Amino acid sequence: MRKIYLSLALMLCYSLTMAQETRKLPVETSVEKTHEVTIKGKRVPYKSTAGTQPVWDDNGEPIASLFYTYYERTDITNKASRPLVISFNGGPGSASIWMHLAYTGPVLLNIDDEGYPVQPYGTRSNPHSILDVADIVYVDPVNTGYSRILNSETPRSTFFGINSDIKYLADWVNTFVTRQNRWASPKYLIGESYGTTRVAGLVSQLQNAHWMYFNGVILVSPTDMGIDRGGPVKMANYLPYYAATAWYHGQLPADLQSKDLDEILPEVEKYTIEKVLPAMVKGGSLSAQERDAIATQMSRYSGLSKEVILDHNLMVPTSFFWKELLRDEGMTVGRLDSRYKGFDRMEAGDRYDFDPALTSWNHAFAPAFNIYARNVLGFKSDLTYNLFGPVHPWDRSNENTGYDLGQAMRQNPYLHVMVQSGYFDGGTDFFNAKYSLWHIDPNGKMSDRLSFKGYRSGHMMYLRAEDLATSNEDIRQFIQKSMVAPNMPAKYK
Q1: Sign of torsion over alpha carbons 314, 318, 324, 325
Q2: What sign for the dihedral angle of Cα 175, 179, 182, 187?
Q3: Model-level pTM?
Q4: CATH of domain 20-226+363-482
Q5: Between 234 and 18, residue with greater pLDDT
Q6: Contact at 8 Å (CB) between 83 and 187?
Q7: How many CA atoms lie within 13 A of 209 on its CB side?
Q8: 186: closest CA among 163, 206, 215, 220?
Q9: According to the UniProt entry, where is the signal peptide (predicted)?
Q10: What is the pLDDT of residues 3-22, one digit of tens each?
């Protein structure tokens, strides 16, 4: 009997040991698979590599390991002329899953044409992927996805902050590009949301500390990237987004509602710059007559009553807008995509209980990636794939990434930047994205290398089928435009 108990105990210890091993991320590993996808009607064979690559400390010891998924087209042998796109999402603390499974990669999660989840969960081929024109690597920063800290004694500040995030990721990218023999390739960074802060800083860090130069940076739903704005500028800039959302929900006066969005927005943007901003700057010195006139016009453009605009001294917070716009219908609108509607426990209040857009998305992505990683990529782990990981406290001090991006462009005549924004995104609104572009290039000398693309959707504009096709094509055209002819010197004329 003692032998039986001993055997059972040994088996239990072995099982626990194996479980513990599978719950640890390997410092370095990779799994390769071959696939094919049809993009724009043409067959594209490709290889996937799902793996981990370490982050080292100054002594060369691994302190963390990052999970990545790398897609390479296999019927092209000349990697020197083949673009490489390095993709990050945001948060901070968000995995790369969003653009990976819903935007530029070779597969898409199952959603309907407007981006709403459907069952059964899973993925399908992406006929709009940019894999036909570029290889792509999706990177999960520390504590997102499967990426983890390996050395528990390493200070969290090594990873969790604007500038520390940029520093260790630049080292990681340098290693990846070297290992994959891609130094000669035209290179691009793409980031979404906080990922735009990340890639704006990365392109500068890689250029100035690793001497790695890029052809392009794509900013999807950009943050302010440390570009100064506040008070009247911050509050005035929301009006065009309010107008777009009110138009979508049919809340504008009949004469405006009958117009197309493309007709309305230039009018509202002009009014914002020429009238609303100066009025807000005047504050209490604004006459009652002027204040009433501005509030009346803001009401026409925003779908809010003149009274609530006056109650807020013209400066209506976004949180109030999401609650107020459809209050008479008992509904709220989403922050990250204001096409989405929800409802709260009480109709009273000045902010909603939850973002109906984000809650809709979360339950579609997690099952799809877990199925895809194990069954298609062949990467098996008992770790939780963190859509949103623990990355706090996050050091937000010394934020200069937008200005650093402008400096990198001035230093590198090859470098182009494109912004992609959804008109119904209330988290990182499109007019503030335009404002950032203006101040990345304050003297206007780089306008031929800066571009803006707007879409009739929200923060993740690619979730809408029509915009998925258009936005991927915009990236494809951006890459082609920013490719450099052989032997073309990097100099200003």
Answers
A1: positive
A2: negative
A3: 0.93
A4: 3.40.50.1820
A5: 234
A6: yes
A7: 16
A8: 215
A9: 1-19
A10: 333 343 334 343 333 334 45
